[in-house]
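Re-run with default settings, no changes from the original entry. Doing this only to confirm the output is reproducible before filing.
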Amino acid sequence: MVRLGLCGIAVVFAVGCNTSKAATQPGLPPGEVWLAADEVTHGGITVEKMGLHGIDDVLATSGRVAFDEERVAHITSPVSGRVVKIDGVLGAHVKKGQTLALISSPDLGDATSTLAKAQADLIATEHAYARAKELFAGGGASVSAVEQAEDAYRQAKAEVERAQEKVALFHAGRSVTGSYPLVSPIEGDILARNINPGAELQGTYSGGNLPELFTVGDLPDVWVFADIYETDLARVHAGQNVEVSVVGIPAPFEGKVDYVSNMLDPQTRTARLRCTIPNPQGALKPEMYGTVRVSVAPRQALAVPRGAILHLGGQQLVFLDRGNAPDGRRRYERLPIIADETGNNPYVPVEHGLDPGDEVVTKGAEVLSGKV
């Protein structure tokens, strides 16, 4: 009888012990971690309440590299004729005024001959005008005769001025039979050459429509053009920082917006943006394509510290502090979120998964992740 009573007491004691153990170590819900106060301290876990933060927003679009038009010359021939010599070598660096090619042209002789004839006509009409005035003073000529002589003199003077301007354009005032030197108007590198010895050219001053013969450019700076949709125009302004990335060059190039068009393309509904990019090594080449990122005006957004976000299987996760559990331990819950982690801002804007006031674990999230 005594033994039976002892056994009953033992059973009751055992049940009581199991009940106490279940109360302190319950089965936790999926994705939750419960920690005692000393574990929280040892894990270095800190939390921060969710709120609005200033986010440096970035607008990304496609772009195209182009010449800085203030540093490039598209050279054509003003005279018609035959190419007799080429001094400009593709890729060579040339000085301003350096000869690129010589063109044997009848236009040079025609221009100087026309000037000589116009000067002779001017002298003749000047003499005739002087004689008409003398005759008029002596009563031997009418007013109309003097006026006709004066008109002829003025026309001859205008013709001389026209011929002088044409000769000056041709740079052919020294010789009637000399070749025309095609020179570079700027200092830079010969980037393109579309001319061969013996080629026959039709000059632009003779009604020709010849493509450029040489392209000379200096590339310490280049222009990059991009298209901005009208919905983003209010956020883009001159002076904003720009980052340009091109395929094959790992490091991006930095510059500033210097122009935004005041009109839209009717087909694409976009406005043209232009930025100047320093290019001291010449790595950026005209007609390259790349990505243009414009740092637009900062915006206020619900954001978490970048270090609070964990990654698991391509999913973004954070831990939230849910307060004390029923047994007194601290309760943490793992939740998936959607956040934009592009850029280098220390705070990452959250698009889905969190609400203002949520307490997010900012340090020690890795410790909690290892206990899930």
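Residues 1-25, 172-177 have pLDDT under 50 and may be disordered. The chain has five helices and 23 strands.
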